Amino acid sequence: MGFYPRNIRLYELALMHKSLAYHEQQDHHYINNERLEFLGDAMLGAIVADILYKHYGNKQEGFLTTLRSKIVCRSSLNGLSHDLGLDRLIRHAGAVTTGHNSFMSGNAFEAFVGAIYLDRGYRYCYRFMEEQVFQKHIIIEEIAKQEQNFKSSLIEWCQKHRYKFEFKQKEGRDEKNTPVFHSSVLVEGISCGTGDGYSKKESDQHAAQQALIRIKRDKELQNGIKCAKGQKSIPKNP
Known about the structure:
Layout: H1 8-14, E1 25-26, E2 29-30, H2 34-55, H3 61-71, H4 74-84, H5 104-120, H6 122-137, H7 140-145, H8 150-161, E3 165-173, E4 179-187, E5 190-197, H9 200-217, H10 219-233
Antiparallel strand pairs: 1-2, 3-4, 4-5
Helix pairs in contact: 1-5, 2-3, 2-5, 2-6, 4-5, 5-6, 8-9
């Protein structure tokens, strides 16, 4: 990986899936890689943004934000985990069958980055991403040309956080009497984005794109979604 670990236990923890949480305990706390995953997600966002900012000296925020989301999306991180051989080192209990567990490799990659940060600091974390990931496994220009599937990205995000989501469509007509579609996307019952298009697929993509931008920037919306999920999980009194 380009460096020597100091605290090997951090990396062992980064590769421990939560399915093992009930099998191994320490100080009465369940042990798994979810806390490191949270930290690694933040580190990845910052480092990838830094690398892209330096790589593209004349590109605007929208382009950089979209490109970063392509690089750190769940399917991309799953692929990087496979390329680095991390997926073969993950410890888990049982078969990987559910939709949430299909992100296990990408989640482990995030946790691994979090482990590097705690073990060696931001500078080593940055060097790992630049030398071991970008130089060997990522061609930025090719990723920039890829058309992003915003709907898939939103679905991945909802599944990762176990949020319920729904796309709704209405059909109408434009000024030339051509059929058009209007889509809205709800996460935990909260409207997050809308979009129009001349097909259901196009309108869904526009709605999902707006939702991803709003969720990323609007802390109140994020908190509202969390609260809505929490309220649904509270059992009602008979």
